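Hey, resending since the last one bounced:
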Amino acid sequence: MTHSGLPPTHRLVALVLAAHADPATGRIAEDANPTLPELRERTGLALHDLHAVLRDLDRLGWIGREHTRQGETHRARYRLHLPRPVRGAPPYAGGRRETGRP
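The structure tokens again:
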């Protein structure tokens, strides 16, 4: 994600979603699925900006969204995708990357 070439706001939203996802599947469990107000609070983005970023991430293939309705409330469930290999991205070895700094 950090080497995706996406704008910073898009990377931020995707990384916040990734913090909720199962690393093996990219799925976000029902009880861990963030609401729009939670995403707004965690990213600091205005609601209209957040909607635009989520639409872009969905259109570009970085996330999938399934819209559901619970009574009068509309919810979206998210799933993360890696739409294509990212050129120039270092291979992920897990854990923290060494930077050579003390």
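Residues 89-102 have pLDDT under 50 and may be disordered.

Sorry for the duplicate.
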